[in-house]
Specification:
single chain, 143 residues, mainly alpha, 7 helices
Length: 143
C-alpha cells in the first residue's frame, strides 16, 4: 500500500492534525519573540512525525536521529516532560520537519507516545481519543 494512503487514517490523522496545529502556533510565536521557550517535549517530538509533506523526503542524518531518539527515550520516562529550547533551535526544527523525516521505527515510537499523551489529555472523548491498537497497525505499514 502507498505510504501516503496509509497516513490518511483517522487515528494517525489526529496526530498529524495536532502536529500542524502546534506547528502553526509555534511558528507564529517564535517569529515574535527571540528567547528561550519552555514547551512540552511531547509536542516538540510531534513535529518529527512522518506526514504527507515529508514522507518522500530524505531522512535525518545519523546524529540528528540519535538526538531525536534520546529525546524520545526521555519522553518515555516522563510523558509530562518540559524542555527549554531557544527560538533559533525551534526555527531549525520547524524548517527541517517539512524537509526531512525520521525512520519508520522512530516515527512509531514518537506517535505512540503522542497518542498516549493525547489520550491522557482528552480522557474518554470519542472525537479526540486515539485507538492505540489501530494506530499501531497503521504505523507498522509505514516503510
Amino acid at each position: 500500500m502507498d505510504n501516503k494512503k496509509i497516513i490518511d487514517n483517522y487515528n494517525y490523522g489526529l496526530i498529524i492534525y495536532n502536529k500542524y496545529t502546534f506547528y502553526e502556533n509555534l511558528e507564529l510565536t517564535v517569529d515574535k519573540y527571540e528567547e528561550e521557550f519552555s514547551i512540552p517535549l511531547v509536542m516538540l517530538l510531534s513535529l518529527y512525525t512522518i506526514d504527507s509533506n515529508n514522507i518522500d523526503k530524505e531522512k535525518y542524518d545519523e546524529n540528528e536521529l540519535l538526538s531525536i531518539e534520546k529525546l524520545t527515550d526521555a519522553l518515555s520516562k516522563n510523558l509530562d516532560c518540559i524542555i527549554n529550547i531557544s527560538s533559533t533551535e525551534i526555527k531549525k526544527i520547524l524548517s527541517d520537519c517539512r524537509d526531512k523525516r525520521v525512520t519508520a521505527s522512530l516515527n512509531k515510537k514518537i506517535c505512540l507516545k503522542v497518542a498516549e499523551f493525547n489520550n491522557k489529555k482528552y480522557g474518554d472523548s470519542i472525537e479526540q481519543n486515539i485507538n492505540l491498537e489501530k494506530l499501531e497497525k497503521t504505523l507498522d505499514l509505514i516503510k
